[in-house]
């Protein structure tokens, strides 16, 4: 048994290093090719990825955004991916009254609300020195946090 362990301690490290040296060039070429392909042909997943993943799992979806035409396209693809029912509601999540309204609409349509994924975000750009009045960031903070 000790001789087998000694043999394995001598042979296995050498085989492992040899296997790594043989596989590393192929892996590097694959990763580089994948990087180039993704750089040349990026998929625009803005606002869509979560909906598609939920649709693949067979979830009932409600899609809410300001642009109804874009929502309809996402809803059609979500239905193709397996979502049994997709409700489209054009609304602005930065307005509290519209948020309350679409929550009520979802509960009335589906009877319940299991998950609420808020993927909305807002950003303001300015130099640090120009940010003298922090109350201008209140709406952004309310939406993002």
Structure notes:
With 145 residues, this protein is mostly helical. It has two domains: 1-42; 44-145, NAD(P)-binding Rossmann-like Domain (Rossmann fold, 3-Layer(aba) Sandwich), CATH 3.40.50. The chain contains five helices and two strands. The protein has helices at 2-40, 49-56, 68-81, 96-110, 138-144; strands at 61-65, 86-90. A two-stranded parallel sheet has the order 1-2. Helix 3 (68-81) links the parallel strand 1 and strand 2 (86-90). It is elongated, with a radius of gyration of 26 Å. The model has no long low-confidence stretch (mean pLDDT 86).
Low-confidence stretches: none
**Number of structurally distinct domains:** 2
Secondary structure: helix percent: 55-70%
Q: Based on CA inertia axes, which overall geometry fits?
A: elongated
What class, by secondary structure content?
A: mainly alpha
Count every beta strand, where a strand is a DSSP E run of 2 or more residues.
2
What is the level 1 CATH name of the largest domain? Alpha Beta
Order of strands, main sheet, comes to 1-2
Average predicted confidence as pLDDT: 86
Instruction: State the CATH superfamily name of the largest domain.
Output: NAD(P)-binding Rossmann-like Domain
Kindly report how far apart the N and C termini lie: 62 Å
What are the secondary-structure elements, in order, as H or E? HHEHEHH
Strand percentage: 5-15%
CATH fold descriptor of the largest domain:
Rossmann fold
CATH architectural group of the largest domain: 3-Layer(aba) Sandwich
Number of helices: 5
- Largest β-sheet summary: 2 strands, parallel
Global Rg: 26 Å
